[in-house]
Amino acid sequence: MSAVMELLSPDKMHVLWAVMLGSYLLGSIPFGVVLTKAAGLGDIRAIGSGNIGATNVLRTGKKGLAFATLVLDGIKGTIAILILRGLGEPDFEILAGVCAFLGHLYPVWLRFKGGKGVATLLGLLAAMCWPAALGFIAIWLTTASLSRYSSLAALLASLAVPAMIYFFSPDGSEAFVFAFLVALVWFKHSANIARLWAGTEGKIGAKG
């Protein structure tokens, strides 16, 4: 409780608001939209599933753009945490990560209709608990190679995140924060879950 009160003290409040706003704005940069428009491919939201993430960018047939989107969406989460670590404000690291994640899901620039958070979640894991990030990648790659469903791979990999955080992280309480983020990932994948159940979900590599 004392740690919470210290964070909410007047001399810390300006840092708190700066972290929340700055991290949200960083996370809200819609790289999928920016890259596809810059490449002359139009609006990615009018292609395939309409999502702004790397999987939908891949449906344009541009693997390089899809990979760049994946990396940049992931780095948003990583940078938000590393900036706070570099400034010597470790108490705000997880808050910065959460705000960057929410910025990706609900970007103000796109009327709060953003991505599904998979790459950004991985970026957070890379900064907060790299063994969990490796576990996420391993589960994703295994599931994707067997099923060819990116959404199923993301759902299963994310589902394991809280347990991996609890096991690998020195501060197991962070598992509860990541459980909240995973719940949002699943919520954003609700349409994918319905299509998987119906057998109509698009597979990796299918063009829009």
Keywords, please?
single chain; 208 residues; mainly alpha; 70% helix; globular
How would you characterize this protein structure?
There is one protein chain. With 208 residues, the chain is mostly helical. It has one domain (2-198). Helix content is 70%, strand content 0%. It is built from twelve helices and no strands. It has helices at residues 2-7, 10-27, 31-38, 54-58, 63-86, 93-105, 118-128, 130-147, 150-159, 161-168, 174-188, 190-198. The radius of gyration is 17 Å and the shape is globular. The chain starts with a helix and ends in a 10-residue tail after the last helix. Mean pLDDT is 88; it is low at 1-5.
